[in-house]
Amino acid sequence: MTVDLDxxxxxxxxxxxxxxxxxxxxxxxxxxxxxxxxxITEEFSVSRPTARAAVQLLVERGLVHTVxxxxxxxxxxxxxx
Length: 81
Prior knowledge:
This protein is mainly alpha-helical and 81 residues long. Helices cover 43% and strands 10% of the residues. It contains three helices and two strands. A two-stranded antiparallel ribbon has the order 1-2. The two termini are 20 Å apart.
């Protein structure tokens, strides 16, 4: 999955969707770290605030939680959709 830089959806929402799909398919298993903001900025060629907004959206959706100084981790049991 890639992001559409010229599409109507905000980049952070597109990135959050890609990361959520990876969580759903097990690429990022429960209780394990998702990529850092720096890694997200590099992979998707976006700014740090965009990467941060994508991670924050995942937090709001209940898919990950952030531990200060350690990173963001997939929750034990993601909410059902």
